[in-house]
Design brief:
The protein has 12 helices and 8 strands. It has about 290 residues and is of the alpha/beta class. The protein folds into 2 domains: about 10-120 and about 275-289, no CATH class; about 125-270, no CATH class. A hairpin with a 2-residue loop joins strand 7 (about 180-185) and strand 8. InterPro entries: DUF4435. This is DUF4435 domain-containing protein.
């Protein structure tokens, strides 16, 4: 199979100079594109090109760019440096991720943040989860409210650990999801301190216990202050832990993580997306006058 050609960053900037009225939406990954494509279709907006950032080759830059999020952020900066605020139809969307903790938000007219930690959090609500539980699972014994109540503390704790790892040593490996909690006789068995101890032993860094406690406590304090769990949940954790809960209780249709993830994204409610700042701003930018 012939390899898909990737334009270099400079080539893409030059293309925008030649076609300044083109409507482009740049996102972190191809899966994200499905959400935006369905949302724009819902509003009968069909002239926007949605590009996963991997279509651009950043190799000509003498910079270490480790993630797709960093690439989208860098692209927005380069566009701003070249065009100031003269392009009206360009948007670059990134996850809030840990920025809500550090209040380290970048600002330019082309950059848009998710309302919560990541795009997956637009699915972490009663209406969307109820849809997947009723249609995608059939006779599942827990309600959407119970699923959210059950998973939220575990997901927030894992977000805290992810943040601490990022601050102390990002090479440390997390505990595998299937080893974090058990479900039996209608209840969850989960111990935050036990998971932290396993993590420290696994990474041979028991001597850093106090460092991890300090960073985790920082996130917990911020969590109490903002009182919005969706700012403190990692998207991948949500999908994996939700799937594990399904497997442990009742996997009616023998989902795999991949097929379950697709089913979860099908539960998205386009009319509900309109109530969020990111999507209302995207609709406002691209709607037909």
């Amino acid at each position: 199979m012939e390899e898909t050609y990737k334009r270099k960053l400079s080539e893409h900037i030059a293309l925008l100079e030649l076609e300044p009225t083109s409507k482009n939406l740049f996102i972190e990954g191809p899966e994200d594109g499905n959400i935006f494509e369905l949302f724009l279709d819902f509003h009968s907006i069909n002239d926007v090109q949605i590009y996963p950032i991997d279509i651009i080759d950043f190799s000509e830059l003498d910079e270490n760019i480790f993630s797709n999020r960093e690439k989208v952020l860098l692209l927005s900066r380069k566009i701003y440096e070249k065009f100031d605020n003269s392009l009206n139809n360009i948007a670059c969307v990134i996850d809030k991720d840990f920025d809500v903790l550090n209040e380290n938000f970048n600002v330019n007219p082309y950059l848009y943040y998710t309302d919560y930690a990541n795009l997956e959090m637009y699915l972490f609500n009663n209406k969307s989860l109820n849809k997947i539980l009723k249609i995608g699972l059939k006779n599942f014994p827990l309600s959407s409210e119970e699923v959210i109540k059950t998973l939220t503390p575990i997901l927030v704790d894992n977000f805290c650990l992810r943040y601490a790892r990022e601050k102390i040593n990002c090479s440390y490996q997390l505990i595998q999801p299937e080893k974090i909690f058990n479900y039996s006789q209608g209840g969850i068995t989960y111990n935050q301190q036990e998971i932290l101890n396993k993590f420290l032993v696994k990474n041979n860094c028991v001597n850093k216990l106090e460092d991890f406690k300090k960073e985790i406590e920082f996130v917990k304090d911020k969590f109490k202050e903002l009182n919005e769990p969706r700012l403190f949940i990692h998207g991948k954790d949500f999908l994996e832990f939700f799937f594990l809960l399904i497997k442990k209780i009742k996997n009616t249709y023998s989902y795999t993580l991949k097929t379950f993830t697709r089913a979860v994204f099908l539960s998205i409610e386009n009319d509900l997306l309109n109530s969020y700042g990111l999507f209302s701003n995207i609709e406002l930018k691209y709607r037909k006058i």
